[in-house]
Write a structure and sequence with these properties.
- The complex is a heterodimer.
- Chain A is α/β, with parallel strands linked by helices.
- Helix content of chain A is 39%, strand content 9%.
- In chain A, the strands form 3 sheets. Chain A has a 6-stranded parallel β-sheet with strand order 3-4-5-6-7-8.
- Chain B folds into 2 domains: 129 residues, no CATH class; 126 residues, no CATH class.
- Chain B is 43% helix and 14% strand.
- In chain B, helix 2 crosses helix 3, helix 2 packs across helix 4 and helix 3 crosses helix 4.
- The chains are: A alpha/beta, B alpha/beta.
- Chains A and B meet through helix 1, strand 1, strand 2, helix 2 and helix 12 of A and helix 4, strand 4, helix 5, helix 6 and helix 7 of B.
Chain lengths: 446, 264
């Protein structure tokens, strides 16, 4: 095997190629880890995470997200770096990665390093390179900021363990929601090989937690947990399938986050969907909303979707959708209902629910108070009473509420979507693009 | 009864001294008000008293608040006092009254039914959010060596609405403990200075101060160029969404960020 690394390539060219190659990895968070500086080097980590910039697509730039190399022996059909693609190839040296990270970090450009890689020669060889780089960053440069490492499926468990002690977070990408789907698009990857390191990391974290209870200064293993990502819309999986997989990953693998990535057909692969309207952003958005409901609002997937109704309503968000189908639970009396019931009201989030519970100790709350607390009244008003009274006379009727909620959307006063209502981004909309209007009309006539 | 207005300096010291004097009047709190900065429209049938900031009184108020309200509520009050809105003095004062006199104590910030507490909460949240954004978005640039400081002094310029420097310095002092760095607030002519491995402190530059264009180190431009390139590359073209970008990172921050300055 010959080495195709071009040694004369400048760091600038490498950064362009390897930053470009890493951009489809969604994970950006720098949260979950809290570490003070020890006075010997630079860096600390903040529990909530920090986003240092926002790219042109509105996604946050928190970490220096790069591939170590985009050389790859695999041929996954959705991936821009597959071996059959003719794209410029580059590889960093460990020193170059360290220098970039340190200099970017001290200028407050980034929160740390996200290091992934194409598979160079073998999973073990690649994983060793990654470990070596991060080890140098941690020991030689005494870097104490956030590090996210990709576990390479198929690499030796010992290497994965070594990486875990160097990183704050690790991730293995599930890629496709179903095992059959993965087989169809990634001939060299197997579901089994992906779940194995995931389980190993999970066990490592649990053991480490016990160790730390016993020995306060025991080294930390993946303090910020692990995450994964799934590609959405490349294969005909339903939202129900995707969310069920996510739920079991949270329950059985104790993942911190599951990311969903709207499919972009980078290779213009003819067997995969062309998606003329751009990536399925609205669908991705609904999945993230549902994901939040699972993690912070005590919802179960089976409450949101069923085998007969396998996809989310595009017109209203999953929580409002659940609420209008369970009108027997409403209206909720703000001054009495317990925290968990408050969380189920559309327009009331985790923060406002907590504030309501705290503020009503001092006396009963009015709609005016709720506004100050941060409740989105235009959505909540159909579902709540304050001291037995509703805000306006409204009907507790599915059709009526849906019509009102979506009418607000049309007037631009309803749900705030990060893009236009039909799923196109702001940029893609033009005056002559009337497709969006048809969709809205369909919604209104439900 | 006659309304009394205590006019205080626009600072934490000023407001706390005002609160001390308001309590010292022993006239209840209904007709006593705190106003920050200059008096504007004078009212009929009201007395105005000018209060000079006093470190001893400030200390006493701060100690009492810390003890009776706890660190959490105390910090909320400090953040509200750093706000750019002139009604902050009154909001902080009446919130303290709610905590100490009406008895909500350490839970005072939860009593959002009280309009002053709600306002104080809002102001504190604005300052906290802005401090958080500055922690994320401020950009250090490496200065060239000078005779007094050799190499690698980091310098950041910010233009926040609220006085956030006291809230962002502890973060950077921990993170960059081994670096010499400075943060400069253009709107207040205020420096936060951190010498390597030492405590940070504030320096007020005075109204006449004009910042000279700093001279940056040789490598500085190169790293800025690298980060600009990275920032351009990382965006996915088919998802381009400038409106979302602007929502997440407002223009007033972008003005100070190297990756949004077009060069070359």
């Amino acid at each position: 095997m010959d080495i195709r690394i071009a040694p004369q390539m400048s760091v600038m060219d490498k950064l362009k190629i390897l930053g470009d190659a890493a951009k489809y990895d969604v994970s950006c968070s720098s949260s979950g880890s809290f570490r003070k500086n020890d006075g010997q080097g630079i860096g600390n980590t903040v529990a909530a995470g920090l986003c240092h910039s926002f790219a042109a697509d509105g996604r946050c730039v928190s970490l220096l997200k790069i591939l170590f190399t985009n050389e790859c022996i695999y041929d996954c059909r959705y991936c821009v770096n597959r071996c059959s693609n003719d794209v410029p190839r580059a590889s960093f040296t460990p020193d170059e990665v360290c220098e970039l990270t340190m200099e970017f970090y001290r200028r407050n450009y980034i929160e740390g390093l996200f290091l992934s890689s194409g598979i160079l020669y073998s999973p073990n060889y690649t994983m060793e390179l990654i470990c070596e780089t991060v080890h140098r960053l941690r020991t030689l440069h005494r870097f104490q900021g956030y590090i996210h490492i990709k576990a390479i499926p198929g690499a030796d468990p010992l290497l994965i363990q070594r990486a875990g002690y160097l990183a704050d977070r690790m991730s293995v990408n599930l890629e496709m929601a179903t095992a059959e789907g993965l087989r169809a698009v990634a001939p060299n990857k197997h579901r089994k090989n992906i779940l194995k390191p995931m389980r190993q990391i999970q066990n490592g974290i649990t053991e480490n937690r016990n160790e730390i209870t016993l020995y306060k200064h025991a080294p930390h293993f993946c303090e910020a947990g692990q995450s994964t990502q799934m590609v959405i819309g490349a294969l005909p999986e339903s939202d129900y399938q995707i969310m069920s997989v996510a739920e079991s990953l949270y329950d059985k693998f104790s993942l911190k986050r599951v990311y969903y990535s709207a499919f972009v057909n980078v290779n213009e692969e003819k067997d995969l969907p062309a998606l003329a309207g751009g990536p399925p952003l609205l669908r991705e958005h609904r999945l993230y909303q549902a994901d939040w409901l699972l993690r912070f609002y005590d919802f179960k997937v089976d409450e949101l979707l069923t085998a007969d109704r396998p996809n989310f309503n595009t017109a209203i968000d999953p929580k409002a959708d659940w609420a209008v189908r369970h009108l027997e639970c409403f209206p909720v009396e703000i001054n009495r209902a317990d925290y968990h019931l408050l969380l189920r009201i559309p327009g009331v989030g985790v923060k406002s629910a907590r504030r309501i519970v705290a503020a009503r100790r001092f006396g009963s709350l009015t709609f005016d108070d709720l506004k100050k607390i941060g409740v989105v009244l235009k959505r909540a008003l159909y579902f709540i009473t304050c001291n037995g009274k509703m805000m306006y006379p409204t009907k507790l009727e599915e059709q009526y509420i849906v019509r009102n909620l979506t009418y607000q959307n049309q007037m631009g006063r309803g749900e705030r979507l990060p893009f236009m209502a039909d799923g196109t981004t702001y940029r893609q909309m033009s005056l002559f693009d009337m497709a969006g209007f048809d969709d809205v009309r369909k919604v209104v006539s439900i | 009864m006659e309304e009394k207005y205590l006019i205080c300096e626009d600072s934490l010291e000023g407001i706390f001294t005002g609160i001390y004097d308001a309590y010292a009047l022993r006239e209840g709190h209904k007709h006593v008000h705190i106003q920050v900065g200059e008096e504007e429209n004078l009212r009929l049938f009201a007395t105005y008293m000018h209060i000079l900031p006093d470190p001893v009184k400030t200390e006493k108020v701060a100690d009492t608040l810390k003890e009776r309200l706890g660190e959490h509520a105390y910090h909320s009050l400090c953040r509200a006092a750093a706000s750019c809105y002139p009604d902050k003095g009154e909001a902080v004062y009446k919130t303290v009254v709610d905590a100490l006199t009406a008895g909500s104590g350490s839970r005072v910030m939860e009593n959002l039914r009280n309009p002053y507490v709600a306002r104080c909460f809002e102001l504190a949240r604005f300052t906290a959010n802005e401090a958080h954004f500055e922690i994320e978005f401020l950009r250090f640039q490496e200065l060239a060596d000078s005779e007094t400081a050799k190499g690698g002094v980091l310098f950041a310029r910010i233009g926040p609405k609220n006085n956030v420097i006291p809230f962002i310095m502890p973060h950077f002092a921990d993170r960059l403990s081994i670096e010499n760095f400075m943060v400069y607030d253009e709107n207040r002519k205020l420096f936060g200075v951190h010498p390597a491995r030492e405590e940070w402190y504030l320096v007020t530059a005075g109204d006449a101060f004009v910042l000279k264009d700093p001279v940056y180190s040789e490598k500085e431009e190169g790293y800025q160029e690298l980060f600009r390139a990275f920032h351009r590359t990382i965006g996915i073209r088919s998802r381009e969404n400038r409106k979302l970008q602007r929502q997440m990172c407002a223009y007033r921050y972008q003005d100070y960020m190297v990756e949004f300055q077009q060069k070359g």
